[in-house]
Amino acid sequence: MEKLKILGMSSETYSKGRIDSFTVPLIDNSGKGISDNYLISLFKELDFAEDSVDELDLDFENMPAGTWFFVYGNPNIKAMIIIGKEEISIIFDTTLSKEEINKVIEKYFQFPKE
Asked: Is 99 exposed, middle or buried (CB count within 10 Å of its CB: 0-12, 13-18, 19+)?
Protein backbone atom coordinates (compact mmCIF):
# COMPACT_ATOMS: atom_id res chain seq x y z
CA MET A 1 0.00 0.00 0.00
CA GLU A 2 1.48 3.33 -1.07
CA LYS A 3 1.38 5.98 1.62
CA LEU A 4 -0.55 9.19 1.06
CA LYS A 5 1.40 12.32 2.01
CA ILE A 6 0.21 14.28 5.01
CA LEU A 7 -0.64 17.80 3.85
CA GLY A 8 -0.92 19.30 7.31
CA MET A 9 -0.91 18.28 10.94
CA SER A 10 -1.28 19.82 14.35
CA SER A 11 -1.36 18.83 17.99
CA GLU A 12 -2.79 20.66 20.98
CA THR A 13 -2.71 19.47 24.59
CA TYR A 14 -5.56 20.17 27.00
CA SER A 15 -6.22 19.15 30.61
CA LYS A 16 -7.70 15.72 29.80
CA GLY A 17 -5.71 14.76 26.72
CA ARG A 18 -4.64 15.99 23.32
CA ILE A 19 -6.15 16.81 19.95
CA ASP A 20 -4.07 15.55 17.01
CA SER A 21 -5.16 16.34 13.47
CA PHE A 22 -3.87 15.07 10.15
CA THR A 23 -4.98 16.26 6.72
CA VAL A 24 -4.37 14.08 3.66
CA PRO A 25 -5.49 14.34 0.03
CA LEU A 26 -8.66 12.60 -1.08
CA ILE A 27 -6.82 11.69 -4.29
CA ASP A 28 -3.06 11.87 -4.83
CA ASN A 29 -1.16 12.65 -8.05
CA SER A 30 -1.31 9.03 -9.21
CA GLY A 31 -5.11 9.05 -8.99
CA LYS A 32 -5.20 6.87 -5.89
CA GLY A 33 -7.40 8.04 -3.08
CA ILE A 34 -8.12 7.30 0.52
CA SER A 35 -10.76 4.66 1.09
CA ASP A 36 -12.75 3.55 4.08
CA ASN A 37 -10.72 0.31 4.16
CA TYR A 38 -7.56 2.40 4.55
CA LEU A 39 -8.99 4.15 7.60
CA ILE A 40 -10.57 0.98 8.98
CA SER A 41 -7.13 -0.65 9.15
CA LEU A 42 -5.67 2.43 10.83
CA PHE A 43 -8.50 2.65 13.38
CA LYS A 44 -8.33 -1.06 14.18
CA GLU A 45 -4.62 -0.72 14.85
CA LEU A 46 -5.42 2.10 17.30
CA ASP A 47 -7.87 -0.27 19.10
CA PHE A 48 -11.06 1.45 18.03
CA ALA A 49 -14.26 -0.36 19.02
CA GLU A 50 -15.08 -3.00 16.38
CA ASP A 51 -18.75 -2.02 16.02
CA SER A 52 -17.79 1.62 15.50
CA VAL A 53 -15.17 0.79 12.86
CA ASP A 54 -17.35 -1.75 11.06
CA GLU A 55 -19.97 0.95 10.45
CA LEU A 56 -17.48 2.94 8.33
CA ASP A 57 -18.58 2.19 4.79
CA LEU A 58 -17.91 5.50 3.12
CA ASP A 59 -17.29 6.63 -0.43
CA PHE A 60 -15.21 9.67 0.55
CA GLU A 61 -14.59 10.92 -2.99
CA ASN A 62 -18.33 11.28 -3.62
CA MET A 63 -19.22 12.94 -0.32
CA PRO A 64 -19.96 16.67 -0.33
CA ALA A 65 -17.35 18.90 1.31
CA GLY A 66 -18.29 19.57 4.91
CA THR A 67 -19.55 16.04 5.58
CA TRP A 68 -18.24 14.72 8.87
CA PHE A 69 -18.33 11.51 10.90
CA PHE A 70 -17.60 10.75 14.53
CA VAL A 71 -15.96 7.42 15.34
CA TYR A 72 -15.74 6.15 18.93
CA GLY A 73 -12.50 4.35 19.64
CA ASN A 74 -12.42 3.48 23.30
CA PRO A 75 -12.05 5.55 26.48
CA ASN A 76 -8.56 6.61 25.31
CA ILE A 77 -9.30 7.72 21.76
CA LYS A 78 -12.07 9.11 19.55
CA ALA A 79 -11.91 10.49 16.02
CA MET A 80 -13.72 12.89 13.76
CA ILE A 81 -13.39 12.60 9.98
CA ILE A 82 -14.12 15.75 7.99
CA ILE A 83 -14.41 15.65 4.20
CA GLY A 84 -13.09 18.68 2.30
CA LYS A 85 -13.16 19.47 -1.41
CA GLU A 86 -9.77 17.88 -2.08
CA GLU A 87 -8.70 16.58 1.30
CA ILE A 88 -9.83 14.65 4.33
CA SER A 89 -9.01 15.60 7.93
CA ILE A 90 -8.76 13.04 10.69
CA ILE A 91 -8.92 14.57 14.15
CA PHE A 92 -8.12 12.43 17.18
CA ASP A 93 -9.11 13.28 20.75
CA THR A 94 -6.82 11.05 22.75
CA THR A 95 -4.95 10.31 25.93
CA LEU A 96 -2.47 8.09 24.06
CA SER A 97 1.05 9.43 23.74
CA LYS A 98 1.99 11.38 20.65
CA GLU A 99 4.60 8.71 19.91
CA GLU A 100 1.96 5.94 19.97
CA ILE A 101 -0.28 7.85 17.54
CA ASN A 102 2.57 8.83 15.20
CA LYS A 103 3.95 5.28 15.12
CA VAL A 104 0.63 4.03 13.74
CA ILE A 105 0.02 7.05 11.49
CA GLU A 106 3.40 6.63 9.79
CA LYS A 107 2.47 3.09 8.75
CA TYR A 108 -0.31 4.55 6.60
CA PHE A 109 0.76 8.11 5.77
CA GLN A 110 3.99 9.85 4.81
CA PHE A 111 4.92 12.66 7.19
CA PRO A 112 5.99 15.95 5.60
CA LYS A 113 9.72 16.53 5.41
CA GLU A 114 10.94 18.94 8.06
From this structure: exposed
